[in-house]
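Try this one yourself first.
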């Protein structure tokens, strides 16, 4: 299935973000450390490059991501002009507290403190932007929740006299170009429930886990390690249903409920530290899709 989700309020939010960009010194783009490029909104890049604004890429939820893969992504981002990258967890205030200093290094014209450093937080829904703002402000100003599109309005506040922060609503983009990006976003709870079918997303996720974290699947759901090479995503969902006693009348596995179990376990970090893409797998995916287009 092709995942597409662009509620009406996002059009207005994009317009307001473009207006605020004119008075912004540094863009803090928050992405999901488990899928950094799939969760990078191309509209954020477009808006900040139009205004020639530097970017601090924050790989949030790093405590849920594969640490080796995260290091590969940090090295990848740091090779790009006008950008710095840092991995952190908003659950650790000491890590978040470093951000204004990192932003100031990207805006040396604000180093004399005669005018405040103006930072704007941007990113997709449910990636932790509002939590990041609350931690920086040391108070609960922005509403947060474990679902996409909780923040609907832009708001600005001061961290201190030298640092100002603007939080923006989560933005997706009108057409998600790569199908696997949409599935990764859905698996990570960044799109609305009405835009996805749990079973299809869970089958995609199970396929990724089989390819890159098979022993994690075996441990979590008591699957025989020797049987994994013969399984596909559908078979994994069916196996989870039977292991958890999620059965329909007649003894068939309830794949819908089993799919929700797998998705929630992944979202809650109960599978361990999992990354859904690496710089290498990202490059391979793009090449495969380009080849498929040429073949058509």
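Now uncover the answer:
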């Amino acid at each position: 299935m092709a995942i597409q989700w662009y509620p009406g309020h996002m059009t207005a939010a994009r317009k307001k973000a473009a207006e605020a960009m004119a008075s912004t010194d540094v863009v803090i783009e928050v992405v999901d450390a488990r899928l950094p490029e799939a969760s990078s909104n191309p509209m954020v890049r477009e808006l900040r490059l139009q205004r020639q604004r530097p970017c601090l890429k924050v790989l949030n939820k790093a405590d849920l991501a594969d640490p080796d893969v995260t290091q590969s992504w940090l090295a990848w981002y740091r090779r790009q002009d006008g950008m710095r990258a840092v991995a952190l967890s908003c659950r650790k205030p000491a890590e978040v507290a470093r951000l204004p200093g990192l932003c100031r290094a990207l805006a040396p014209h604000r180093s004399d403190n005669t005018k405040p450093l103006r930072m704007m937080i941007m990113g997709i829904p449910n990636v932790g932007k509002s939590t990041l703002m609350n931690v920086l402000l040391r108070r609960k100003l922005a509403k947060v929740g474990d679902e996409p599109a909780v923040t609907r309005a832009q708001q600005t506040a001061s961290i201190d006299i030298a640092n100002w922060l603007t939080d923006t609503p989560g933005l997706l983009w009108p057409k998600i170009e790569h199908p696997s990006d949409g599935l990764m976003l859905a698996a990570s709870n960044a799109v609305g429930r009405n835009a996805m079918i749990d079973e299809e997303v869970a089958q995609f996720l199970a396929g990724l886990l089989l390819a890159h974290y098979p022993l994690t699947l075996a441990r979590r759901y008591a699957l025989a390690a020797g049987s994994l090479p013969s399984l596909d995503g559908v078979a994994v969902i069916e196996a989870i249903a039977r292991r958890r006693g999620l059965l329909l009348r007649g003894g068939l596995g309830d794949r819908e409920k089993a799919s929700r179990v797998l998705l929630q376990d992944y979202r809650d970090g109960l599978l361990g530290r999992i990354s859904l893409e690496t710089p290498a797998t990202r490059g391979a995916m793009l090449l495969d899709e380009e080849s498929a287009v040429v073949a058509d």
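Discussion: The first strand starts at residue 26 and ends at 32. The chain has a mean pLDDT of 90.
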